[in-house]
Design goal:
The structure holds two protein chains of two kinds. By secondary structure, chain A is of the alpha+beta class. Chain A has 17 helices and 23 strands. The chains are: A alpha+beta, B mainly alpha. Chain A: InterPro entries: DUF7840, DUF7843, Lnb_N.
């Protein structure tokens, strides 16, 4: 050996002198976050740390790791050597201490090298499966990573996914545990085509693939870090320490100095991963759009006449043989399209468990056999909607003014999450609303009085258009404090809970039309018996004629039968005009009638997203 | 505070229906063996999607999911091709019927067919769809044997 091995204590001295434990990259590798005057790792698994107080002490952990790296090759027959357990930490420490690194008795991790060689990573992409129609939690979307080998194509990529491990649990317990860290989150890796099946084919979620500009060296560092996280858990929190947040550590590990996790907003939604990656200079060109099976079916139907669509449906349902496409339809192009649509529809019905497996496989095979006789046909690509990164940021404030029964009023509002029918439509799933803690205040200058206008604790509204193929239901659930008209005609506030279900239909240029039967409950001391409950009916139209324009008309009636017996009617007209990605105007006219009193409210606000 | 309110709201909402979480792990080797939607109700879809793939697996210890399937006796096809075809039976069948598509491209990549020879391969497979998929009972092993036979 060219130089004599410096001893452990010398290395330790050097590390202490250079204050390596304060290096931001060390904090990335251990997921340390500032907490009070000290640090705390977001990782909760004790086996991730070698020092007893490693979770909260970056210095003790660094020194413990260095000592472990100096252990002889076969110091412990039971456990793998620390270098083989934490190759990312080792690689970084070795690079920091330069020549002294050659003194380590173990300097490589053969298992990692084998995996690395097998994966042959060449590029990576951030994957964003968009909202799940009709599924509120997934309305936020999800993010994962796909690591691709050279020349192998996207399907064969490895999908790196961070998710919570849950069992079968009753809903409320599930929500509670999810919010307060009752579940453990782990990284997992699967073939990307499995993820496509899961999201695109089964959950009907369009996917966006954002290519990353990671170099070979950066990909290696990312995988080294991922290797250390194998079977290591962190408590999973839906709101902040979720999939979006944890993926950021992989990017931070890939590129020292990026510090994306540190910039993550308090409430992390999956699209924030994309936004931070974009801001941090990680994205390489525009995303690739992967339409879901549902979107593909809609696209195929758009090019067909009513008769042709009907035939495709009959073939998919086994009411007409696949050969009838050739008999009833003139052009080969249209025959192919009808059969493609029939095959996709049969598959859709099978994944929804409407079609039994035996019927499906036979029919699917026969449709494809008929299709194969029509040769190669040009496939028109599905038109690409605006990507999720083009949508407004998740939080919003607004200010404006108007009139309430002719009286001037100024309004201020705030909503931390996420997207509603009163927001810039671009980049968001149409017909999906999920508002959390939407609150606004009204100031009446004539009376010099401030009123709480409304607080929507949670307001979810899902409009999934129903047609011959998609038997979707639309529904809403909302709870919060709203303005009401008191029995004497004055304005008051009530706690309200409202839920309902119904259907919506795509009315073409008119937008989405919807009708919902609802149940309403309101509690306020001013009402007879202090509450009212009864059935309601809601109907409306939601249209997005342009990416910067949204219009909505809605009427709602509630017949309070229990408690304070009365009828309440509401009419709403609203419009959003986006002036940029993160600004826009919202205009609204709201008419309320209750008992013999009515109230008309006009408002124009400017909205800013942040 | 914010979390508390949100938790309360979600609890009310989820109390409406017991959420069921699906074990989405039915891989196989025939048509129709893709993952299907096991969520029974509208509301139960809620979180299963976000928490997809809920398993504490070994990150780097991937199992192929084809251990119960027959291995083809042909030496032409390696394990990677077997796994890919078994896992993507329906999508690959669709691409072969159309004579194009990402799954067909991936098969050609795995078979190491150069780009200039692919159009010929694709139309040969398309023209022989009924030979490759003689019935809906074919397994991925049959498919690979039949592909080899028509080439």
């Amino acid at each position: 050996m060219a130089q004599s091995p410096p001893d452990l204590e010398k290395t330790i001295e050097r590390i202490q002198a250079e204050k390596l434990h304060q290096n931001p990259y060390w904090h990335v590798l251990l997921h340390y976050q500032k907490q009070g005057s000290g640090f705390k790792s977001r990782v909760d698994d004790p086996s991730f740390f070698l020092a007893p107080d490693g979770k909260t002490n970056p210095k003790a952990e660094l020194l413990a790791d260095v000592r472990a790296f100096y252990q002889p090759r076969d110091a412990d027959a039971e456990k793998p050597h620390a270098v083989r357990r934490f190759p990312a930490r080792f690689a970084w420490i070795a690079s920091q201490i330069g020549d002294s690194a050659s003194a380590f008795p173990v300097r490589e991790c053969p298992r990692f090298e084998k995996i690395y060689a097998a994966m042959a990573p060449d590029s990576a992409a951030l994957i964003f499966p968009s909202a799940h129609i009709n599924s509120p939690a997934s309305m936020f979307g999800h993010t994962l990573l796909a690591v691709e080998a050279k020349g192998q194509g996207r399907l064969l990529a490895n999908a790196v996914n961070y998710s919570a491990v849950t069992g079968r649990t009753w809903g409320p317990i599930f929500a509670y545990k999810g919010l307060f860290g009752g579940y453990k989150g782990y990284f997992s890796m699967l073939p990307y085509y499995d993820k496509i099946q899961e999201y695109s084919d089964v959950s009907h979620r369009d996917m966006w693939e954002y290519p990353l500009n990671l170099t070979q060296e950066e990909l290696r560092r990312m995988l080294l870090h991922l290797y250390e996280l194998d079977n290591i858990y962190s408590d999973y929190f839906f709101i902040d320490e979720n999939c979006a947040f944890n993926l950021l550590y992989l990017l931070d590990a890939a590129r020292p100095g990026a510090n994306l996790a540190g910039q993550c907003p308090y409430i992390a939604v999956p699209v924030d991963t994309i936004r931070l990656a974009l801001k941090g200079g990680f994205l390489d060109g525009p995303p690739v759009y992967r339409p879901s099976k549902m979107t593909r079916i809609e696209h195929l139907r758009n090019g067909l006449s009513g008769e042709e669509k009907k035939l495709a449906r009959e073939i998919a349902q086994g009411e007409a043989p696949p050969e009838s496409a050739g008999e009833k339809i003139k052009t080969t192009e249209k025959q192919a399209r009808v059969l493609d649509l029939a095959a996709e529809t049969a598959s859709y019905r099978y994944t929804r468990k409407v079609l039994p497996k035996e019927d499906y496989t036979r029919r699917y095979r026969d449709i494809l056999a008929a299709r194969s006789g029509l040769g190669r046909r040009e496939i028109t690509p599905v038109p690409e909607p605006a990507g999720p990164d083009s949508g407004h940021l998740s939080s919003k404030v607004w200010a404006g003014g108007g009139a309430n029964d002719g009286e001037a009023v100024f309004r201020l509002g705030w909503r931390p999450l996420f997207h509603g029918f009163d927001d810039n439509p671009k980049g968001y799933e149409k017909g999906a609303q999920i508002k959390v803690m939407n609150a606004s205040l009204d100031y009446f200058p004539e009376k010099d009085r401030v009123d709480l206008h409304r607080v929507d604790l949670l307001d979810i509204f899902s409009l999934a258009p129903r047609d011959a193929v998609f038997k979707s239901l639309s529904w809403r659930v909302a709870t919060g404090f709203h303005q009401t008209i008191e029995p004497d005609g004055s304005r008051g506030a009530a706690y309200v809970f409202n839920m309902g279900g119904g259907i919506s239909k795509d009315l073409g240029p008119l937008g989405l039309g919807y009708v919902l039967a609802e149940a309403d409950f309101a509690a306020t001391p001013g009402w007879d018996m202090g509450y009212g409950a009864g059935p309601g009916l809601r109907t409306g139209l939601l249209a997005d004629p342009a990416p910067w324009l949204r219009l909505r008309l809605e009427g709602k009636g509630t017949r309070y039968l229990l408690g304070d017996d009365h009828t309440a009617l509401t009419g709403l007209m609203e419009s959003v005009i986006a002036t940029s990605q993160n600004t826009g105007f919202h205009a609204q006219a709201l008419f309320q009638r209750s008992r013999d009193f009515s109230n008309t409210e006009l408002n124009l606000s400017f909205q800013i997203y942040f | 505070m914010k979390k508390g309110l949100l938790a309360a709201a979600l609890c009310i909402f989820l109390a409406i229906s017991p959420a069921a979480f699906a074990d989405q792990s039915n891989y196989g080797c025939g048509l129709g063996s893709m993952v299907i939607d096991n969520n029974e109700s509208l509301v139960s879809q809620t979180f299963a999607a976000t928490l997809n793939g809920c398993f504490a697996n070994q990150l780097f210890g991937m199992s192929s999911g084809t251990s119960n399937c027959d291995k083809p006796d042909s030496i032409v096809y390696n394990e990677k091709i077997n796994i890919f075809v078994a896992d993507n039976m329906d999508s690959l069948a669709s691409d072969i019927a159309k004579g194009q598509g990402e799954y067909l491209d991936t098969l050609a990549t795995l078979m190491e067919v150069p780009a200039d020879q692919r159009p010929v391969l694709y139309s040969k497979l398309q023209n022989n769809f009924s030979v490759i998929y003689p019935s809906d009972q074919v397994t991925h092993t049959d498919v690979l044997r039949n592909i080899e036979a028509v080439l």
